[in-house]
Amino acid sequence: MGSTPPQSTPPIASTTVEDAPFTTGESTEGEVKKQSTGIVSDIIDLPSGKELTDNSAKLLATSRPVRWVVVVGPVGCGKTTLLTSLYELFQWSPVAGYLFAGSNTLPALEQRCYLSRVQSEKTVPETQRSAYKEHEPDYVHMRIGNDSLSPIDLLFTDVSGEMFNDARDSTEECRKLGFLRRAGDFLLLLDSEKGVRLEKQWAMVRDAKMILQSCIDSEMIASDCIINIVWSKFDHFVAAGDQEHHKKFREEAEKEFRESFESRVGHIRFGTIAARPTKAPSLGFGSGVPELLKRMNSFSRQSRDMVLLPQLPAGSRESELFALRHFDTPTT
Amino acid sequence: MSDLLDRQILLIGLPNTGKTSFLAALWFMVNQSTVKCRLTLEKLFGDSKYLNEICEAWLEYRPVKRNQLDSVKLVAMTLKNRENDRLVRLSIPDLSGESFSLQWTNRQLTSGYDEQLRKASGGILFVHPESILKPTRIDTVTELAMASGDVVPLENIEQTATAETKPWDSGKSPTQVQLVELLQFISSRVHFQPPFRLAIVVSAWDLLIDLSETPEKWVSDQLPLLRQFLSCHKSIFDVVFYGVSAQGGRYDSSPIPQKLPAHRVSVVGDSVSNSHDITEPIQWLMH
């Protein structure tokens, strides 16, 4: 996963015939064939569809209001799996009453889903590990909507958990993660795979707490940001023995978060997901993900998102907005 | 001829989705008298060689020659609307399915296609039930296999150490994802004028006739991501669904059915009044 060029459409690129994937030539009657020699200049580059860089995500946000969803957690806690499972759910049906309205990063989403698809010829589904880039997040984009709601553009961070290691240990480092300030939703994942292990569970909780504390203390989280603390891989709890003990542990852990942060943030919510519940398949693929989406959207802070970045001039037609949103994002 | 309308429509679709077969059947149907189609050929216009070639293959139950990747055939015909006698010069660029695939894989289109898109008053998006790539997840396959007692549960499976992961091939991405992207590309062009009339044609509808579904229901079930996308953008894409059987059966089946050529064609859809009239989608697009 390298960096992505801005999602603007270059005008017309010149390319040699050898490089050209196809050419239609002139739109005149009859057959028009590819030129056999020479330079052709009739190829129009389309956006790469790769993950968005911080800059290209900001450019997208100039065309219409977006919701910035920051997904936080250590390496391997299921951040990317959460994103891909949401996308995979849309592949089969609407999710929590929302319809899939498009994406600027379809190839990026497809690539992230690949290792859990039959085509990869794997026997056990996996998720592609997100690349570590120091302070710059990648984003994947999904647009959702329904009959009664204007479409919502969701920009999800897709970053390696390593990015948060330094931020946890130092508010100075945390301040370098400028993208956190834009977060309308802050999804902090608690890894249930560690949660079921007595020797790991409290270290995992403390680690997550310290990340959140560092983000708050360094004033990187806006006061009206919605904090969603999510037990990921919840199938591990479902499949584990001694349910009573585990329930108590979770209650204690959630109490820790409430007591530490409830007075300091606008909203704090708890939930569970089992995006790919291999330990308890009966939960069903994407378990808890629709509920999370619903919970996020029930506490919309669209108004703040809208003023974060300049908007389009009033009166822009829907098609212009659509075009801008997809490809012709202004470069100013 | 002062009231001659000029219209251009696009045939959009990935490889093997029936675009050229549709065109071959259309060329035959507008110039025959067995079935009273809404649009009929008024007079020849320009070079009909390509249309005649594909129509001949269609009549002889031969596969229509696939369009070359590096060429675009722009066919044109002057048609008369039976209802009001209005004449329309219809232009249809016939691009190869690969050229649409390459928009997804290579992220490029030609200025020629872009120009045709600019001129188009609407388009037909073809899908073929036998060429759909689905986003099949490993866990769903494992569940099915478990149900039949063939495999052990997923949590007990170790990844085969020696198993090489097949590299990701964007060309094998799900059909519905590629189609959504094609529509996003169309709607993102600077000259795009919504609402864009889009007829969704499910080709080889005769293969699905036993399902007793409507084309719209079939698309909703088989290509749900595409359906959701279209539902969200009703102001951008004005959509009608058709099921079209342009070939009238498989060419490799024998014996050849004893049917009048015009009766090989069947069209279903909410607004279809004549089930053999392949011009119905065209007529709707030209409104």
What does this structure look like?
The complex is a heterodimer of chains A (332) and B (287). Chain A is of the alpha/beta class and 332 residues long. Chain A has helices spanning 54-63, 79-90, 106-113, 163-169, 171-175, 192-195, 201-217, 235-239, 243-261, 289-298, 302-308, 318-326, and strands at 13-16, 30-33, 39-45, 66-72, 99-102, 138-146, 149-158, 185-191, 226-232, 267-272. In chain A, strands 5-6-7-4-8-9-10 form a 7-stranded mixed β-sheet, sandwiched between helices. Chain A has a two-stranded antiparallel sheet with strand order 1-3. In chain A, helix 4 crosses helix 7 (201-217) and helix 7 packs parallel to helix 9. Chain A is globular, with a radius of gyration of 22 Å. Chain B has helices spanning 19-29, 49-59, 97-105, 111-119, 138-147, 175-188, 215-222, 224-232, 261-264, 280-285; strands spanning 5-12, 39-43, 71-81, 87-95, 108-110, 122-127, 196-203, 237-245, 266-268. Chain B has an 8-stranded mixed β-sheet, with helices on both faces. Chains A and B meet through strand 2, strand 3, strand 5, helix 3 and strand 6 of A and strand 3, helix 3, strand 5, helix 4 and helix 5 of B.
Helix content of chain A: 25-40%
Q: Report the sheet-strand fraction of chain A.
A: 15-25%
Overall body shape of chain A: globular
Summed over residues and divided by their number, the pLDDT of chain A gives a mean of: 81
Give me the count of strands of chain A: 10
Return residue spans of chain A where pLDDT drops below 50 for at least 5 consecutive residues: 1-41, 301-332
Largest sheet of chain A: 7 strands, mixed
